[in-house]
Amino acid sequence: MYFEFTEDEEIFRESVEEFSRRYIEPIWVDIDEKNTIPFDLIKKMGEQGLFAIPVSEEYGGMGGSFMMTTIAAEVIAYYDPAVAIAVYMLLNNGWPMALDLYGTDEAKGEILPKVASGDAFFGIASTESHGGSDVAGIKSFAKKEGDVWIANGEKVFISGVREVQELPAGGGWFYLAKTGSLDWGHRNITAFALLPKWNGELKNGFKPTLYEEIGRGGLSSGGFILEDFEIEDKYRIGEENKGFYYVLEGFNIARILVAAACLGSAQWALDQAAEWLKNRKLFNGRRLSSFQGIHFRYAELYAELEAARLFTYRAARLVDKLYMEKDPTLKPRDLNIPVALAKLKAPEAAVRIYEEVLKWYGAYGYMKESNIYRGWLGTFSYVIGAEGAQNIMRLIIARDLLGGEYIRE
Amino acid sequence: MMKILVPIKLCYDVGQMKFDSNTGEPILDAVPRSMGEADRCALEEALKIKDSIGGEVVVVTIGEARTHSKMLRDAFAMGATGGYLVSTGDYDKIDLNTVTMIFKALVEATGPYDLIIMGAGSTDTHSSLLPPMLGAKLGIKTVVGIDKLEYADGEITAVCTYGDGSYTYKLKPPALLSVTSEANLPRIPTIKDILRAKKMKFEELSVESLVENIGKVDVLGIEKYIVPRKKLIWEVDSEDKLAEALENILSVLREGV
Ligand SMILES: Cc1cc2nc3c(=O)[nH]c(=O)nc-3n(C[C@H](O)[C@H](O)[C@H](O)COP(=O)(O)OP(=O)(O)OC[C@H]3O[C@@H](n4cnc5c(N)ncnc54)[C@H](O)[C@@H]3O)c2cc1C
What we know:
The complex is a heterodimer of chains A (409) and B (257).
Chain A: H1 7-23, H2 28-34, H3 39-48, H4 66-79, H5 84-102, H6 105-117, E1 120-125, E2 141-145, E3 148-159, H7 161-166, E4 170-178, E5 189-198, E6 201-202, E7 206-210, E8 221-232, E9 236-237, H8 243-279, E10 281-282, E11 286-287, H9 292-324, H10 336-360, H11 363-366, H12 372-384, H13 390-402, H14 404-407
Helix pairs in contact in A: 1-4, 4-5, 4-8, 5-6, 5-8, 8-9, 8-10, 8-12, 9-10, 10-12, 10-13
Chain B: E1 2-7, E2 10-12, E3 33-35, H1 37-53, E4 55-63, H2 65-78, E5 82-87, H3 96-110, E6 115-119, H4 130-138, E7 141-152, E8 155-162, E9 165-171, E10 175-179, H5 191-197, E11 203-206, H6 240-255
Parallel strand pairs in B: 1-4, 1-6, 4-5, 5-11, 6-10, 7-10
Antiparallel strand pairs in B: 2-3, 7-8, 8-9
Helix pairs in contact in B: 2-5, 3-4
The structure holds flavin-adenine dinucleotide.
């Protein structure tokens, strides 16, 4: 496709492709089967500079662009279409970037270098059992006592619950809890860097559970209950009671990477399909690709994917303009529609592509051996709602286009 | 401290070549190009020597800034300390003898070099002739087609696998060495390497400043190589003919179809 990339972005893409061909492609099925990403791969990714890419070098990040981060998520998902590694990577880029934007110097200096090296995980813990889409309705609560916050409550469907416990340094999440009066709506939420295991030490008051997922096997998801869990004030992210705004910025950042991961995985499926369609012959030796019913559909799906790709790259460029180049004409909310378009279209294109490719493969597609289903189940997590449900994307687009007062009646 | 020159070529990724179904010619515009595989291995060998004893690794290519600067920057990201672009728009047409003379002139103008390490052949055309020709023109010791290269205590050990067996050579610089793509697994530049390379500059020299007569070769056509296939049918109407037919099939398979 044609899109202007800088020379360093192109070299970076080639470097991630080579890395992924060497270290990810040979083991992605095994990772999906065994439900774990080997730590030596995570370490290698850290050495290659694939975590904390958009984080400033001052805090141990790579000082790279957000476009590079997006490219990395896309490429890695091409070589691990089940997307566990891409999601592991994107969480450890998007949320460290959000921490870099609003965290205290002390917390950033402590956490970000360990995430960058691969020794620690840093994701997002927002969802609660009443419904993840309703971020303002969370019930977790943190109360300040002296220099410490005492947090209580439960989070569910959180990625990385096992990894935080198993990685050498541990890690945690960009965590949301209510800190103000319940009457203040969304203006009563504060964000924290929650580190249940840190520097190898598991802290008191953290009660984790693990769930079994149907896809993206390599990355765990689970829940946890906090019981009088102590969070030092240095781990507060930004101002008190403004966490809702910071998390929306974080979601915008992460959603672009999610879209990129879907693109990479779906491109893999389309490439597999191209080989299959060109070589599978039936009805007196006709290639499947020669039937109009097939190649029209192939072209249509490709168009959907390319449209989603342009949405995704545009949104990534906007992030660079806003946060890296500090373009004074842009505000965080200017990202809302461009990001929602990418997050709406990329996962849907991916899932549609998988459903069609599975059918093109016929019975073989239904066999585990074909591995197509792994990408289908992996990308499906993003039409369900990881990093924001599809209807929420529609809501954002409609709200910003029509005006909030016209859709809230 | 060593000064090493590594000539590199921008090659077509032959794995991604698509062919026009009517003319059989490759559609080259759509084919991505990057540093030749063996060239990358040559650069890796040079960088290993630099990493162990220090020195400079200088890359050189013939081409245009528009198309070739990315490859030079890729080499910088891997660790090359400097680079030259011998600029010409006709880089695809320059004949081998002229390429040899260009590199010879460049060595004389920018050298001396302790070592010249190059890929044994390029990923796309792969004639493997340039290294021995350049070695001969420079009048330095030359070993080509190296699969394993070591440098220790001022001495090079090079292992080459030729048709009749494996040869091990020992020699001291100055020398020209060509390595195959089996020689090593080249390093992958990290994002920090890439960002550092962004700030580096290469020096442009016009091709005319190095050689007077530029010999050109026009490529008239490239066609996809298609393995000829035979269709052989043995009709078997009785069981005792089956063994005979199988014997025939086997003999054809042994010959190669
Ligand atoms: C694999 C996976 C990993 C995840 N990882 C994390 C994580 O690391 N951290 C984290 O915090 N969360 C995580 N989540 C949770 C995710 O953020 C939520 O699934 C998402 O926010 C949706 O919430 P929900 O599942 O509770 O669905 P609900 O919010 O209950 O939504 C259910 C359905 O209703 C629709 N809906 C909701 N509101 C509206 C509306 N106003 N109008 C119209 N339709 C609406 C939604 O589109 C959806 O289809 C993960 C989820 C998955 C599947």
